Amino acid sequence: MRFFKLALGATTVIGNLVDNCIANNGHGSDRIYSHVAVFSIDGLHSSDVEKYIALKRDSTIAKLLQTGYECTDALTSAPSDSFPGTLNQFTGASPRTTGVWYDDTYDRTFFDSGSDCSEKPGAEVVYDESIDYDPTKLFSGGINPANLPRALVNGKCTAIYPHSRLRVNTAFEVVHLKGRETAYTDKHPAYDLVRGPSGQGLSEGYFPEIAAVPNNVEAVIGFDQLHVDAFLDWLDGTSPADAEGSLNGIPTLFGGNFQVVNVAQKTKGYLPGDGNPFTPDLLKAIDFVDSSLGKVVNKMKAKSIYGETLIIVASKHGQAPIDPTKYRKIAPKAVTNATQVKVAFQTSDDIALLFLEDHKDITTAIDNLNRNRNSLGIQDIISRERLTYLGYGDPTKDPAVPDIIVRPDLGVIYTNSNAKIAEHGGLSDEDRRVACFVSNPKLEKRVYPHRVSTKQVAPTILKALGFDPRELQGVVAEGTEVLTGF
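-> structure tokens emitted (486 positions)
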């Protein structure tokens, strides 16, 4: 479902130069796989992979890298929120094309939940636990349409599901519409998103609610175990309890995320000092993920499909700061107030996305933010022509694009929370440089140090399955290439 025609052209070309600086000088693998499994270890940096295998040389991750391609300079989406980070991997496109900037943002054409769409448009667009029937339960019936933002679609005031927010199709859609089985699991029912605009991308979705468990490593290991059990069920061609949809055999394309590393980074983080070693809790979290990947590999071997499956590990996002001494907390309202203009909405993490009530106030807002750069820890202010030049889009033409992006200094988080020491969503390398590797027992070990984008995962999925990557609208729009080696 599209709410307006995409504006591509020059924006697409320039955006590609910014974060799709790739070199497809690989070894031309034309091999077709029977299955592709895609896993996000949310928060895991590229540097964490090297740090971990130095400690655990016999780990599952170390073994996967022995027969795989590792991209050591892979960037996720900008902003690096989980929603655009997920869509990077499954659409091959960035927020300017997908229309999805964050799981909690704003759209100048939307209306609040419960609205009849008769008032002035412009509303928060939030797709997190707040759209569940009951976020205190792991499973409460999925998404409650009464909690969804609304928009006029063909003149009718309509509740907009996450998948309907998306402007381009997903790899799950392409594969499922060819009659193949697909399955995906993530932390909220809102990850209905990956079904794509048709709503038909998944044979089966499995979406327990993470807000229903305590925010600590032990509890989230238990939560992630639900995802692991789903992976193992799917490899048996069966469905976990409380899944949405049904399967007829082992999925051709399946995947999901691990949340525990993200939680460990936010609550315990890294140690100060040379190399910023893992804290015990963070190491425990990565050990759990590694052991879980080992269980998935062993199940694939037991089902005699390991050799015919391409495993892709690509984190949706990183986390910043790695060095805990750089952490600095600033109230989001301080940014809003500093503009001294009317702000319709602000998304805040280690980034601030500002939507002004009136575009004409842009100069005043920028001037006032510049006067407060030191107190607000501002590294950069991106607006007007630079938004377009850097590939983010034009807020005067696209209702989902913010007027101003504030990039803070590394370690600054715009938050009121006392419960976290790191965050993601921002534009720093620590937010965006993520773990990214592919593995299959028939691949030779290779390390690619040049810059790639996790957008390249999407066309790689389709090529690996023998399908045309150009069936992805986002790939065509942004000229996204497959990963090196494919």
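Residues 424 and 438 are 24 Å apart (CA to CA).
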